[in-house]
Automatic annotation (TrEMBL):
Record-linked PANTHER family: PHOSPHONATES-BINDING PERIPLASMIC PROTEIN
Keywords: Signal
Gene that this sequence comes from: phnD
UniProt protein name: Phosphate/phosphite/phosphonate ABC transporter substrate-binding protein
Signal peptide coordinates: 1-24
Membership in a protein family: Belongs to the phosphate/phosphite/phosphonate binding protein family.
Amino acid sequence: MSIKLLTGLMLSSSLLMGATAAIANDCSHRGVLDDKFCDEDYDLVADLPKDSNEWRDPSTLVFTYTPVEDPAVYKDAFSDFQKYLSDVTGKRVVYYTVHSNAAEVEALRSGRLHIAGFSTGPTGYAVNLGGLVPIAVKGTEESFQGYNLITVVRNDSKITKMTDLKGKVVAHTSASSNSGNLAPRSLFPALGITPDQDYEVKYSGKHDQSVMGVLSGDYDAAPVASDVFKRMVDAERIDKEDFRIIYTSPRFPTSSFGYAHDLNPELVAKIKEAFFTFRFPAEMQKTFGGADRFFPVTYKEDWQVIRDIAHSSGTAYTKTGLKQLAEADAAKAAKAAAKRAKEAASNSQ
């Protein structure tokens, strides 16, 4: 290696280390946030960058909603809000369809996503790793919309209480899901049943797939979000009488809505105005269980119970945790594709 090249490499390395140190020294507190973020006001979410040159003001805003069920359903459900958001901000708003929680977090982290709704559990990943600033939950004038973890079995099942799940096959949804995985692991042991130890856990991928799997007999039971179960009943995808609920948890906040931490403050003010002045049209109220507006929340206060559940279950909202989530999502997608291929081959015979 030439002296000139070696000197250049050493200089580049020195500059990189200096820049990294400068970034680290420029932040007096970041808590559990990723190294690229700062939290000097101790509100548990990423601060706006100190350098105004880093503030983003895109001409097109990209919006999405958590892939808890069929993503196409929610693209239509939020069409009125997207138009209103466009009118208030004066910017074009497009819907970006995501098919996994990990993909949604990565889209936010990479800057491809500006405004989003994240399901309850993955909100922690979005905050710590993606720089999400949650501001709202679907709700009414009185309060935000909540949901419960419910455990469902078939109505003709001999399972009548939680301890009857011992030795059974139980569908959890995904590793990051609050009601579909984290809350069961945190709450069930006190009920005398420990996931993976007392029953076999199989990941279904989504709440509706867990419910349908119980109905078809693929699983003996499933912990799912009560709001998803209700929407399936209301949409007549399932008959409530075909199921029995053997457990109902305390109430949790439902999906959070927020914006990327580095958006221009003037744009953020318009985004907040759009969220808090928009009123859901009748069809949107029907889709979201009677919610008629976005109710203001904070991550620090309103997500405390969710963070406690994650902590007690050993879940860390870190890069390693997100990588594991992405791997689990990929495995589920491959399994689902194989199942569809098998069914297609069977139907063609």
